[in-house]
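Inverse folding, one chain.
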């Protein structure tokens, strides 16, 4: 098992007024992984990031990063963490290269023009190095935020909604860049509303809602455990009723009894649908078409957040 780079135990945060944003969160992040934290608005994602990055004081629990207590050794920890916040925040009249150099200096790092050039080139910003930030598009401004967060070579990088408000093409370009950062050894934690982003990029996924972690697992394991297969079989002739030989599948009839519908249980994937087709053939039922659908990570996420029975067990 990979080394744990971030260890969160029993983390809680209650704001003045009584709002509990985090409620006993336990979470361990492995060195070198991309971890996607999913949750609806108000679930506690940004509060969790703020607690780790020292932007707010937790009400309870412990956070260790790189084996260091973030409360007692905050400065040492913060120097090794990068943060790209959800909200864009700049001196809009600053030049791109100056802004990124300034961020590096804020973390006590010596000037390193070659390293800054590498960062800017990796984010396709080198040609914009002399431009004022206010002149850039929204997507390019977000790239500058990432460059600023990378300027001091963090080992752990937080990306809070990194592709919010950018078009699909730029989003996919940024996915590639984030993957390259991971390949270079950076551990990445991202929050996102784009669940396809997590499905595309993440090694592991966590789901948080109302301040509680509902699920953490490898992406493939989640799909195997909680994924479902659905199948719609178009029959050559309508069936008066479903034969008893197919009772185990809990099928329904639709479209004036011309379509057999199977909605798989949790963890039943393509194999279950294939076995159903064999059973239909063995029962002598003629059919002219079949359409199958596999659960997406988004389907599973929606089930979890809406509290479908058994999913959070």
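Residues assigned per position:
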């Amino acid at each position: 098992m990979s080394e744990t780079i971030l260890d969160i135990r029993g983390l809680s945060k209650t704001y003045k007024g009584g709002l509990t944003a985090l409620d006993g969160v336990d979470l361990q992040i492995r060195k070198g992984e991309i971890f996607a934290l999913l949750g609806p608005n108000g679930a506690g994602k940004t509060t969790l990031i703020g607690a780790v990055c020292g932007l707010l004081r937790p009400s309870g629990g412990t956070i260790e990063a790189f084996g260091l207590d973030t409360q007692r050794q905050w400065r040492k920890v913060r120097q090794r963490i990068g943060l790209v916040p959800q909200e864009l925040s700049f001196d809009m009249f600053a030049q791109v290269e100056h802004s990124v150099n300034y961020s590096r200096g804020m973390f006590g790092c010596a000037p390193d023009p070659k390293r800054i050039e590498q960062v800017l080139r990796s984010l396709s910003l080198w040609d914009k190095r002399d431009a004022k930030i206010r002149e850039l598009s929204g997507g390019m401004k977000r790239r500058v935020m990432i460059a600023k967060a990378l300027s001091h070579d963090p080992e752990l990088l937080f990306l809070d909604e990194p592709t919010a408000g950018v078009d699909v093409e730029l989003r996919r370009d940024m996915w590639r860049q984030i993957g390259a950062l991971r390949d270079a050894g950076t551990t990445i934690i991202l929050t996102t509303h784009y669940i396809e982003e997590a499905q595309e990029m993440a090694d592991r996924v966590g789901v948080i809602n109302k301040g509680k972690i509902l699920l953490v697992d490898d992406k493939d394991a989640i799909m195997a455990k909680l994924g479902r297969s659905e199948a719609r079989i178009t029959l050559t002739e309508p069936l008066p009723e479903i034969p008893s030989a197919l009772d185990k599948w809990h099928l329904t009839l639709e479209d004036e009894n011309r379509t057999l519908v199977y909605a798989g249980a949790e963890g039943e994937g393509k194999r279950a649908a294939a076995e159903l087709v064999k059973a239909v053939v063995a029962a002598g039922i003629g059919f002219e078409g079949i359409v199958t659908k596999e659960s997406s990570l988004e389907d599973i996420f929606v089930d979890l957040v809406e509290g479908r029975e058994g999913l959070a067990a």
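DSSP finds ten helices and 14 strands in the chain. Residues 309-313 have pLDDT under 50 and may be disordered.
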